[in-house]
Amino acid sequence: MDPALLKERELFKKRAIAQPVVENRKTKNPPKHNNAAPFKNKNKSKSNQKAPPPPPPPASFSKQNSSHQSQSKFAALAKIVQHLKQLHFDGDSHSLTFQEILDETNQLDLTSTVKQWLIIEALPLNPKILLSNGKYSFKPLFNIRNKNGLLKLLRNYDDQGRGGIYLDDVRESLPHADKCMALLDDQMYTVTRPVDKKVVLFYKDADYEFQVEPEFQQLWRSIPVDGLDEDKVSAYLKKQRIVGMQDNGVKRRVLAAPNKRKRSQKQNKKVKRHNDHLGDILEDYSEK
């Protein structure tokens, strides 16, 4: 081979080695930053989104609806009690079923919840309602129907030492109470309590009607007892050597039940007799 060509070939190699070259090598794994960007964007978008608000509670459990239901329940109960009370005052003493009450009070549109509450709890536990054989009627405080019943009730209270009866209780129990009291004006007292201004009825016993001399009346009224209780009055009387009554109530005598005497067994015992067939033949020698 020509030596000049070989020399040129060696120079060419030297120049090629001395000149720097940048090579683009292929990477087996793809760059991470290219694929991480979309995930970061997705996370940012999810964090920016707000959580949906919780659903509102049902309307039936709200406070406003519950208060409205309680008002409607007690309004229905008050209407029933007032209707039965009016029937009692009109002299109509027969009982009514629950359906008849709803019909007469125009409350057929009540809900099943209110009806169930009235039947199970409200009506049976009401002190002014009497339940008998599945029917309802008004239950007055006193079982009186006329003026004679009122007079007898006042007399019993007086005999038992129980005092008087409130006028409000009489008006709630007796039909036409004011008319009956007007007819019994001369047989009872009416006293107004200064504390609460309530009127109390007392029986007027004719045995205690007597005339007191005006001199004793003035002495009685001249003694100031305002602000004094019973203990102070009794203590003052003891200092003056005046003994007061210990018990103002009427004492009942309890009669003991009569003891039943046991019959002796001898009365019921049969005595056996002998020799009855010789009664005509035998003679008595005791006198001889």
UniProtKB/TrEMBL annotation:
GO biological process: transcription initiation at RNA polymerase II promoter
Compartments reported by the entry: Nucleus
Keyword annotations of the record: DNA-binding, Nucleus, Transcription, Transcription regulation
Extent of the signal sequence: none
CDD domains linked to this entry: TFIIE_beta_winged_helix (cd07977)
SUPFAM superfamilies, alphabetized: Winged helix' DNA-binding domain (SSF46785)
Compositionally biased intervals (Basic residues): 256-275
Record's keyword annotation contains RNA-binding: no
Biased composition (Basic and acidic residues): 1-13, 276-288
Chain positions covered by the region annotation Disordered: 1-68, 256-288
InterPro entries listed in its UniProt record: TFIIE-bsu, TFIIE_bsu_DNA-bd, WH-like_DNA-bd_sf, WH_DNA-bd_sf
Source organism, top-level taxon: Eukaryota
Annotated ranges, domain TFIIE beta: 62-145
Subunit details: Tetramer of two alpha and two beta chains.
Function: Recruits TFIIH to the initiation complex and stimulates the RNA polymerase II C-terminal domain kinase and DNA-dependent ATPase activities of TFIIH. Both TFIIH and TFIIE are required for promoter clearance by RNA polymerase.
Family: Belongs to the TFIIE beta subunit family.
Annotated protein name in UniProt: Transcription initiation factor IIE subunit beta
Organism (species): Strigamia maritima (European centipede)
